[in-house]
Amino acid sequence: MSTSKSLKIGWIGTGRMGFALATRLLDAGYDVTAYNRTRAKAEPLAAKGAKIVDHPKDLAGLDVVFIMVSAPKDLEQVVYGENGLLTVAGTVPKIVVDSSTVSESVSAKVREFAAKLGVEFLAAPVSGNPAVIAAGKLTVAVSGPHATFTVVAPMLETFGHGVTWVGEGEVARLVKIAHNVYLGIVIQALAEITVLAERGGVSRAAFLAFLNDSVMGSTFSRYKTPALVNLDFNATFTIPLLSKDFDLGLAAAHDLKVPMPIASATAQLISSAGGAGYLTEDFAVLIKEQARRSGYEIASEDVKVVSGLEVDIHE
Predict the structure, then answer these.
(1) How far is CA 192 from CA 198, 237, 278, 284, 289, in A?
(2) Which domains does the chain have, with CATH numbers?
(3) pLDDT, tens digit, 9 for 90 and up, residues 278-307
(4) Where are the alpha helices (DSSP H) in 44-170?
């Protein structure tokens, strides 16, 4: 199979993430045909050069089809449900790349179905959100046949700056879950130490500026600084979603006999935040719950701070 931009690409799922990633492929010069359950959400891609179709099966004759849908049942529906991608007799894509967040068991089920039809399947969960994509800093973990990975790697590299083949089968799913467990541990730790500094008389902006300039600073701590300082909790990832990933991570830890005491304690704190009603805000809202536990009501400092994502590294 050619690895050139002559390959015909299909895209299923044009929500906030899917739309942004399909746009990256179009901007890189790839030929993209897109489907979304609500067609109106895909239509704006037409202005960027994409073709829009009415059913997943309309993408069956293409070379590579990417999928980014919101739930396991949605993945199964678009693959082998009514009018699904792999339901056209005698016509299937060569490769399917799934970037949805699903369990290893569902991923394996879809992989098995695809394999019976001679379709290569890659699990390719991503780390980031539209702002991260715009900054060119999305990362991707990929598992499946390495030879297949080498074909799609140039396409995945348009998404951001880190594309890693992590092994065969469904191991990319575990990588994504492990990543999100770590994400939760780090944001809870940031909330705790920031509240500690504030209760001792240091502004959150000053403390996080110091932290971000130290060896402990990171892309993530800088990225979350505006939310922690100014309490802007416009959701990128919610407490219920984070709690779900902790459940999956701790279940994997149980199965693999890996003790995770810090993750277990963090899971309880995240669960209690959900119980306190933080269901739709960004998970950085954990700082409000930490302040409440510390006996005070936190307030925005209304300070201009940068996130580190302001410049697109591809520009």
Answers:
(1) 10, 19, 17, 12, 10
(2) 8-169 (3.40.50.720), 174-293 (1.10.1040.10)
(3) 999 999 999 999 999 999 999 999 999 988
(4) 72-80, 104-116, 130-134, 146-156
